[in-house]
Design brief:
The chain has about 450 residues and is an alpha+beta fold. It has 4 domains: about 80 residues, no CATH class; about 100 residues, 2-Layer Sandwich (Beta-Lactamase), CATH 3.30.450.20; about 70 residues, Signal transduction histidine kinase, dimerisation/phosphotransfer (DHp) domain (Helix Hairpins, Orthogonal Bundle); about 150 residues, Histidine kinase-like ATPase, C-terminal domain (Heat Shock Protein 90, 2-Layer Sandwich). The protein is about 50% helix and about 20% strand. The strands form 3 sheets. Strands 2-1-5-4-3 form a 5-stranded antiparallel β-sheet. The chain has a 5-stranded mixed β-sheet with strand order 7-9-10-12-11, covered by helices on one side. The protein is elongated, with a radius of gyration of 40 Å.
């Protein structure tokens, strides 16, 4: 009897040992499979499937791992997609945690705050080196809402030493249910602020320019008021007043016309009247209109033009370009005997046009501003120089409307040169060959 009990216990121990070994082998197989493959499949299991309970447990574990991997991959894909979108915006974007350490920095932020080391994990002040950004983030956290501020920053890249204006926006992530920390957006508003300043200056200057002739005309009209005048107006007073009023009325009309011209040129893509004409003929006709002024100033105009210089564009605005450039040279130089040279040469698919005079020149401090509206160089004799102050602004915008550019070089007391470069139209033969190729 005892022998039977011993044999039974031995068989039970052997069975339990075998089951333990089988379960251990199955678990070891599951563990190796999980470590070996990122997305393990239940079909890869052999030893673990020998036991139904262990097979079910293994499949459940592997299914949970697969679901977790799918969730992780989906979140990673979404994160990469969002990062790609945020990297495409031009504004610098930073995301910081509750300790003001950077957790995300887009490409624009890395350009704005260049560093040899990664932005991630570093304090915000260490990366941006500007307390106003940190103060804006701190204030946003204290208020629990979006805050804004501005700061100026001088560029130190290459030869550029310009000063830029930036708008800072910060908002806590908790306000949009994204946890602790804040997002910071830094936008370059230099052009916007400059445009606003130009608009304000233009309104102020235009009001001043319009007010002057209006005040003069109004003053003369009050003086000529027949009902109020005592004694009555005599003929001599009328002969003196009427020409003055006409002169200022003409000036007022020219200012309005020039302002309308500039306004039209702002939308030049739709308003240009395309036609084919010869630039040389355009220059000669503009000089014909200025001939009385040229003779009055005893000026000499020398032309260096090719036999033919075909242009496709708006002839009206090219008349304005040449008329204003030559007239500007004649007006700014009060002394007689001015020499003006006009050259036109084809240069690698572009026309290079130069209008050069040997007059008083333009001071270096004024060169960056001469194309601004109502800007005058010789402010000391502005009363002697007739004009609206809009001529060179019209020239610049008309050249740009034809996809060209204009610049000025000047040596005071020696020479002033306006240089225009504008694309040549394609030759008729090339145009025809392109049409045939298209067909």
């Amino acid at each position: 009897m005892e022998i039977l009990v011993i044999i039974a216990l031995a068989l039970l121990a052997a069975f339990l040992g075998w089951r333990y070994w089988a379960i251990l082998r199955g678990l070891r197989e599951v563990d190796d499979l999980i470590k070996r493959e990122s997305s393990p499949k239940p079909s890869s299991l052999k030893a673990a499937t020998e036991s139904a309970a262990l097979a079910n447990l293994s499949r459940t574990v592997l299914n949970h791992i697969t679901e977790a991997n799918l969730t992780r991959d989906l979140e990673s894909t979404q994160r990469q997609f969002l990062e790609a979108l945020l990297n495409e915006i031009d504004d610098a974007l930073l995301i910081v945690d509750e300790n003001s350490e950077i957790r995300f920095s887009n490409r624009a932020a890395k350009r704005l705050f260049p560093s040899e080391h990664s932005h991630l994990g570093r304090p915000l002040i260490e990366v941006c080196l500007d307390h106003r950004i940190v103060d804006t983030v701190r204030l946003a956290g204290e208020l629990g809402s979006k805050t804004q501020d501005r700061f100026n920053r001088r560029s130190l890249s290459g030869e550029d030493r310009s000063e830029y204006i930036y708008l800072i926006e910060a908002e806590p992530l908790s306000s949009i249910n994204l946890g602790q920390g804040a997002w910071v957006l830094i936008r370059d508003v230099t052009l916007q602020m400059e445009t606003e300043r130009i608009r304000r200056d233009f309104v102020a200057n235009a009001s001043h320019e319009l007010r002057t002739p209006l005040s003069i005309i109004s003053g003369y009209l009050e003086m000529l008021d027949i009902e109020e005048s005592d004694p009555p107006i005599d003929a001599e007073t009328l002969r003196r007043c009427v020409p003055t009023m006409r002169k200022h009325a003409d000036r007022l009309g020219r200012i309005v016309d020039d302002m309308l011209t500039i306004s039209k040129l702002e939308g030049y893509d739709e308003l240009l009247n395309r036609e084919t004409f010869d630039l040389g003929d355009c220059i000669r006709e503009s000089l014909d209109h200025l001939q009385p002024v040229i003779e009055e100033k005893h000026a000499r105009v020398h032309l260096d033009l090719p036999v033919s210089a075909t242009m496709v564009g708006d002839r009206f605005y090219w008349d304005q370009i040449f008329f204003n450039l030559v007239e500007n040279a004649l007006k700014q130089n009060l002394e007689p005997g001015l020499n003006v040279n006009i050259r036109l040469n084809p240069d690698q698919g572009r026309y290079r046009i130069e209008v050069i005079d040997d007059g008083i020149g333009i001071p270096a401090a004024d060169l960056p501003h001469i194309f601004k509206r109502f800007y005058r160089v010789q402010k000391d004799h502005s009363q002697l120089v007739k004009g609206t102050g809009l001529g060179l602004s019209i020239v610049k915008r008309a050249v740009e409307a034809h996809h060209g550019n204009i610049r000025v070089q000047s040596r005071p007391g020696q020479q002033t040169a306006f240089i225009i470069e504008v694309p040549q139209p394609p030759s008729p033969k090339l145009h025809e060959s392109n049409n045939h190729a298209g067909k």
